[in-house]
Amino acid sequence: MPAEPRTPPCTYRHRGRRAGRRTRALPPSLRAAGAGLRDAITTATRGAAARRFPRSAARHDGRRGRPRPFLPPWPRGAPGGGRGRARAMATSRTFLKRTRAGAVVKVVREHYLREDIPCGAAACRLCPPRPAGPGPGLQAQPSGAASSLCPGPHYLLPDTNLLLHQIDILEDPVIKNVIVLQTVLQEVRNRSAPVYKRIRDVIQNPEKHFYSFTNEHHRETYIEQGRGESSNDRNDRAIRVAVKWYNEHLKKIEDEEKIQVIFLTNDRTNKEKALEEGITAYTCEEYIKSLTANPDLVDRLACVSDEGKEIESGKIIFPEHIPLSKLQQGIKSGHYLQGTYRASRDNYLEATVWVHGDAEENREIIIQGLKHLNRAVHEDIVAVELLAKDEWVAPSSVVLQDDGQNEDDIENEEEKENILKTSVNKDMLRPTGKVVGIIKRNWRPFCGMLSKSQIKEARRHLFTPADRRIPRIRIETRQADTLEGQRIIVAIDGWPRNSRYPNGHFVKSLGSAGDKETETEVLLLEHDVPHQPFSQTVLSFLPKMPWSITEQDMKYREDLRHLYVCSVDPPGCTDIDDALHCRELENGNIEVGVHIADVSHFIRPGNALDEESVKRGTTVYLCEKRIDMVPELLSSNLCSLRSNVDRLAFSCIWEMNHKAEILKTRFTKSIINSKASLTYAEAQMRIDSATMNDDITTSLRGLNKLAKILKKRRIDNGALTLSSPEVRFHMDSETHDPIDLQTKELKETNSMVEEFMLLANVSVAQKIYEEFPEFALLRKHPAPPPSNYDILVKAAKSKNLEIKTDSAKALAESLDKAGSPTFPYLNTLLRILATRCMMQAVYFCSGMDNDFHHYGLASPIYTHFTSPIRRYADIIVHRLLAVAIGADSTYPELTDKHKLADMCKNLNYRHKMAQYAQRASVAFHTQLFFKNKGVVNEDAYILFVRKNAVVVLIPKYGLEGTVFFEEKGKPTPRLDYNNEVPSLTVEDTTLHVFDKVKVNIMLDASNIQHQKIRMVLVEPKVLGNDVPANLSTEISSKNEPQKKKKKL
Ligand SMILES: [Zn+2]
Q1: What count of other Cβ atoms lies within 10 Å of the Cβ of residue 802?
Q2: Where is the composition biased (Polar residues) (predicted)?
Q3: Do 416 and 499 share a structural domain?
Q4: Ligand 1 center to residue 614 CA distance, Å?
């Protein structure tokens, strides 16, 4: 049974859920006034006179919902009963709508038409003045590129498809003064959320002069759907009517030069109709090509295949895709299977499809060969048909890179496909299928580099994406000479049946390959880290400066400003989300408080700021850059618990005895005033000082004393401590991620803060789970399956050591004992190996899971409460806790376990990608380091032994790399792998795990897109003299997380 949330002291004003859901985050200038004008929905089943003008929701933080047109406010003080009703004319639109439950209801929407919607032209005196925001409106003298087709001043008006497909062009700074109709905007919103967001951002950009015209509410541009007219045709007509109206309207403006509105459409029929009606209309290509001063723009045109265009060059290569409706029938009947398409990184002719649903068998289907892959792209949702059993294949172990230049050389492909069909053992065969249709494309813009055509002055070139799982893409560009050697972004437009590669267009250049800023941008894009500056809409939800704490803020809050609170962080930390205090109570017990930034006070559910934060999910820390989850005003100022300023906090306060046993726990929203922002070193110095005895120092000593007891108890209970001061990177006790590669010495104060954060997280987890057993957001760390430990156990055994793995406690204890007086580094190596056996910790919703255990911390329950500035999970936990103690109100999504589970999925994904991005950033900086350093020889230890390589760790740099023993085009050395020991014999030399070796390290820049660190074994010498020439290596485990996973 889901627990009923407590009655909130004040609600988020979601009276009438329907109303709330329909409200969109409007720009602030429109938020209040826009509420007055709302389509009233009445459903036939519920009676005609249902709630009209539900105004409540729009006032506050808009929730997600249907598209809201940008409407001007009703004029102030208008006569009549309603606001400005006198100037509005009501009509009604009736349509059928399918409800969630599947019933069809008749919806009558009262639709108000108005005369006071401005055209947006700056020179117009006929329309009422344009309200402030969003966006700047159309210029009186349109600036922008000169067109040879229409030399006079003009505005552009695109139709829906043009906007959907050519958004890259419309975003170009050269394109200005564009009218975006409400009809178009609504259609775009329904068809592509990302494009909708992009166009909204463009409309708000003051440089672009895009104007959103509310044609559907304008008395002269609104049209009824005709009998027998499809809604598509009706919308096309509505757009043409608006163009005509604009042209007539603009003629009335008394100006020397008349401004013309040009209709842009790629739809042949629509264009013909427009021309018949006397409208100037061009296709996007015609217009863009007429901008003769900007020839490069042509590159950014999407090549969308109009009907007829596809049969351009002869031979059909691929089978037809089955249409969606038939696919859905087939999936229902079980004839086809639906799944996510995962291209192989190593072999471009192979992929797997992960079938959705719970079916145990046929979960993973192999697809082999170009025709069976049938134009699916990595991450697409596809439908597959299983092949007959006698056609099943085994996963190939061949590495095949698509390096063909001649794209029409299909025979060659067929030859390559035969390589895959090597005879295999019957039990190696796996379910095999072919892609019969695409359910959903998941194309995104791809980073990569141009592979310039060898044909002189060719315009068509192939683009090679950085991600090997993405096929090469054919683009047209005249700038090939400039773009060569640059990292560029390309979007896929389509993949016709007669084309070996998908067609796409150039979007933009990121800069020269190898350049630090370019490469950072690439790794952010490739790891799907949202990193654009926060939009105006998002920023509009920030508190207005100067900010101060109001009377209202003090409600439900305790004033704790008198306490000696301080924060302890790494040097240079500006996003301080935790602070602590400790004091002796009169009864002799100790009070300890953990105070966490009250981010959920500033980020209210459902508004644009909240949506952006949940999408980002986490702050991403790269070597030289931080990508914030929330805008800087919050992260580094209002939420940051800096010293000597009043800050809002969420406090967890314990009463403890001197044995660090918790006697009482309470939670409260609070206001604090930190007395000091200290670094770990400063805090340590105070604790150790013989002369300092001020309140802060006393408080720190108290905390430190308790933390030591807490830590000991935690470890006695079986928590793992895999970090070691000898390793040059510090491991996070909770996630086992390396936090800092350069931390040499850990101070007691590091672990002091950590102990109390862990304790607060456990206390909060208990509280929210007790209060909301069905929808508490928790974090678990599953115990690894026993087989994960094989590698560790075997490696230890080879040194005559025993590692027990039946429990975390047994593991921790045997690791403590494992050591060798003659080999002090051995223990560190064992701990490093142990971290590799671990599973990922994940967020989950308590109502959707049974296993809560946190293995690494040996805690039955755990969550994240202490870093709401940089982790979104903590914000949800804050909201849950606030509802639990009656300090804030709930909202529907917070108590919906399915929504919560979906959110956890996204957060887990974002955290994983953030981690990969961090590793990639470290790998890139390692490369830079060795580029400057040149070739060096260093001591290393063998961490893993593989069939054809060894993985080594170089303690001096905390760097890991793989030494391979075979190379393309070179004679293969004799390799003998023994899985039991484990060991690898290369010619006459046998290598074991933990062997100390010497390696030669250098940067291999031969492939500019995939630079890598090469490592070659120098000692022991395993081959002839010309060692470096025969061996190659790469840092595989660091920059290719996917591979690493397979190894474990
Ligand atoms: Zn006007």
Answers
A1: 10
A2: 1030-1039
A3: no
A4: 40
130 CA distance to ligand 1 middle (Å):
9
Which three-class secondary structure state does DSSP give residue 488? strand
How do residues 480-512 score in pLDDT, each as one tens digit? 888 988 999 999 999 988 888 999 999 999 999
pLDDT at 565 over 50: yes
CATH of the domain at 259: 3.40.50.1010
Q: Which residues surround ligand 1, an ion (CB under 5 A)?
A: 119, 124, 126-127
CA of 175 to the centre of ligand 1 (A): 21
* Statement to judge: residues 773 and 892 lie in one domain: yes
Does residue 555 lie within any of the structural domains? no
Q: Does residue 65 surpass a pLDDT of 50?
A: no
Mean pLDDT of 893-914: 94
Q: Cα(128) to centroid of ligand 1, in Å? A: 8
Using the CB atoms, write b or e for 906-923: b if 16+ within 10 Å: ebbebbebbbbbbbbbbb
Residue 531, in any domain of the structure: no
Query: Domain boundary residue among 395, 424, 440?
Result: 440
Indicate the pLDDT class of residue 906, thresholds 50, 70 and 90: very high
Where residue 814 falls among pLDDT bands split at 50, 70, 90? confident
Shared domain for 455 and 427, answered yes or no, is no
Q: What is the pLDDT of residue 412?
A: 64
Distances (CA, A) of 2 to 7, 267, 773, 827, 864: 15, 52, 7, 48, 22
Out of 258, 276, 300, a domain closes at: 300
Neighbours of 944 (CB within 10 A): 21
Mean pLDDT of 331-344: 92
Same domain, 789 and 914: yes
For residue 950, what are the domain limits?
Answer: 932-1043
Distance 121 CA to ligand 1 centre (A): 6
Are residue 436 and residue 450 in the same domain, yes or no?
no
DSSP 960-1002: EEEEES--TTSPPPPEEEETTTTEEEETTEEEETT-EEEEEEE
179 and 207 both lie in a single domain: yes
Give me ligand 1 centre to Cα 126, in Å. 5
Q: How many angstroms does the Cα of residue 161 sit away from the middle of ligand 1? A: 26
Cα of 279 vs centre of ligand 1, distance in Å, is 19
CA–centroid distance, 245 to ligand 1, in Å, is 10
Q: What is the 840 CA–ligand 1 centroid distance (Å)?
A: 59
Task: Kindly provide the residue ranges of all beta strands, DSSP E only, lying in 230-358, ordered along the sequence.
Answer: 260-264, 281-282, 337-343, 350-355
Domain-located, residue 338: yes
Q: What is the pLDDT of residues 236-249, one digit of tens each?
A: 999 999 999 999 99
- Cα(251) to ligand 1 centroid in Å equals 10
User: How many Å apart are CA 731 and CA 721, to the nearest integer?
Assistant: 9
Beta partners for 489? 447, 508
Are 433 and 465 contained in the same domain? Answer: no
Ligand 1 geometric centre to CA of 72 (Å): 14
pLDDT in tens, 450-465: 988 877 777 889 999 9
Do 907 and 772 share a domain, yes or no? yes
Q: What is the pLDDT of residues 15-60, one digit of tens each?
A: 333 333 333 333 333 333 333 333 322 222 333 333 333 333 333 3
pLDDT in tens, 849-864: 888 999 888 899 999 9
**pLDDT of 622:** 83
| Å from CA of 118 to ligand 1 middle | 5
d(CA 124, ligand 1 centre) in Å: 5
Question: What distance in angstroms lies between residue 1023's CA and the mean position of ligand 1's atoms?
Answer: 82
Distance 84 CA to ligand 1 centre (A): 20
Q: What spacing in Å lies between the alpha carbon of 129 and ligand 1's midpoint? A: 9
Beta bridge partner(s), residue 450: 463
Q: What is the pTM of this model?
A: 0.72
